[in-house]
Amino acid sequence: MSMVEFWLTLANNHKNMKRLIILISFLMCSLTTHVYSETQKLSLLKLAEQITSAKPGDTLLILSGQYSDINLELKATGTKEMPIVIKAAVPGEVIITGKSSLKFAGEWLEFNGFYFKEGSPPAGNSVIEFRLNGEAANNCRITNTVVDSFNPSTRDISYSYLLLYGRHNRVDHNSFLNKLNIGVTLIVMLDQERDQQNFHKIDHNYFGHKPVFGSNGAETIRVGTATQSLKSSNTIIEKNYFERCNGEVEIISIKSSDNIIRENTFFESQGVLALRHGDRNIAEFNYFDGNNVRNTGGIRIVNADHIVRNNFFYRLKGERFFSSLAVMNAVPNSLPNRYCHVVNVDITGNAFIDCDHIQFGVGNDQERTLAPSDIRFSHNLIINRSLSYAFEAKAPTDGFQFSENRVGLAPGAKLPKGFREAKDVNLQNLLKVEHTKREDCGQSWNLPLSAQKVKLQDIILVKPGQDNILVALVKANPGDIIELSDEGDYPISADILIDKQITIRSKEGLSSKPVVRYNGTKKGNIVTIGNGAELVIKGIAFSGMGEPGKSNPASGISTMAGMIKPYLLEVDNCEFFDFPEGSTIPIRGMKNTFSQKVVIKNSLFRAVSADAINFAGERDDAGLYNVEELIIDNCSFNRILGIGINVYRGGSDESTAGPKVDITNCTFEDVCNKERGSVLRLIGAQVLNVANSNFSNSGRGGVSIRLDETTFEKVTVSNCNFWNSGRILTMTNKVVQGKMFNIKPQYINADKFDYRSVSGSQLKLKNIGVR
Predict the structure, then answer these.
(1) Residue 144, pLDDT score
(2) How far apart are CA 497 and CA 726, in angstroms?
(3) Residue 16 DSSP SS3
(4) How far, in Å, CA of 467 to CA of 288, rounded?
């Protein structure tokens, strides 16, 4: 029977007339919808105008091009069966840059294939928001999209790459890369009831390299806040890949209830999945591979009723808040934003392979005195043949129930109740455990390759003379070497600005160091480190004395006043002398700048009226600091009016693991003898080692070493000599390791600033002072 015959038969039956009318109406509606659904190609500039007339089922294809300074504010309504799709005609070729952002509201919208590249949003905005003019988006999707290097000019300007509002939204198969400013990469917002119990899905995304930020507030994903922690979010975070996400201790920060975090992979990421606030969260089938990198961690547990099961922890080196597993002590009657009791938690079926630290009662101190209770630790596997213990108890473990756990530890290790020897474990098969791979996550199209050309390293020879270094620097490409060919003077009238990878060195075999000095008419630094610089300086002398009628330098080597990219600095066999102004510091890192690593070795600082080395630009007492790792080795300091080495990280924030400071084999002769002064002022270093160093005629009006350490910071002073010098000021009286000495130094030639100990002297025999 044809469709026409069917309709006629149905029409002849009077009883079925009503059904006929309903059927025809349905078919006509479907046909109408199909007829008017369409695909349009248009410029991104026309999208806001065109979307106002978009209907369910429409696809708007955006033409390829670079779109700058475009603020998209969009609202439309699709349906579940027929969403409105806004898609790059060629994924990855719709490039959004400049001062740009995307905000949208409505229902059933999908954005696909866009490339946010090297821009920043307008002030007060984030890059992508599921909200417009206070109205949230629901049932919407961002997919196959990249946000890369969308950073402001300085690192202290805060915003996120993506803010999720509303309910039932999905963020999938995207890449979020190179976020350098403060602010969480992706936040699930729970501000209003409409945003709670949201059932968002965040899946198959790639979260790329995020360097250590040196402050709280640099998480990769956060769900809620402390004040919303008892609200249910019901967000699912699954099958994402986190690679070198190092911003702060919390890579994923869960601050709400009833979330599921599963099947994610964390590779070489210095931080943890933190169940920080909220209850009833599930973390399962996640894979953590630290690859033996410092501060790589697993899961940290706070609050109640969680399930942590079937996770795989491998080669993790972090401890305390960065441990492969950290179960926290709590504050009795805690406020929501501190540490609530860890109670009624299942930790089961997890594997810990070659992980350094499983810690219970983490944070136990005079405030966090409430130990975890009703913790069921069962059916877990722990393999680490270098350890003699299964876990570390930082507080009583009476509240733990241990059962059916298997361990493979060092020979002779004592096994606590609930643990037995793991026999016949095939480690090679165990390491083949299934987990989310890098290739499963991120956008489907390939990111364009860098246009940088591979070239041989050039050596640019520079003769003495006015501004010759500046002329050479203009010619230099990244990776080149500027070599000062002769002894003599190399004056400069403007900063030597370094914003790429450069080496400045003296030619081998010179009888004295080439002298670089500043003679500009406006105050500037001798060397200024710019965004992302990698600078190595070897065998150079820096004079801080200006010429008559010219300006003295502001600093010897200094960062810019505010930067976005971290930098690297190495200073080797250099001399800094005659810095007569109290504000002119030979080496410093300024506020709102950050270095991953600074190495200063084999160098001499003399006749300096200011601090010699200063990484104390952050004064907000909020846990910020200027350098992640500072190494000062085999350096001499003489006639320093200010502080010899000044490092500052204020406040009690525990979101970071730096700075890490090593000061070894240094000599301090006549340094900072003013009242209340200090030769070394080292405040807030999380890891600090002062060793084999000689303090002579220094710190007499104050102290030789001023500390302000907490009980958990790793601070040690060992094998040092204090002759006619100040004492060590310490908060805990636990920092001194071994014997200190009071020996009068005998130098090879102090008149020529050679502070090596004479042969056979006690200091040389004890390896104290410069070598």
Answers:
(1) 98
(2) 39
(3) helix
(4) 52
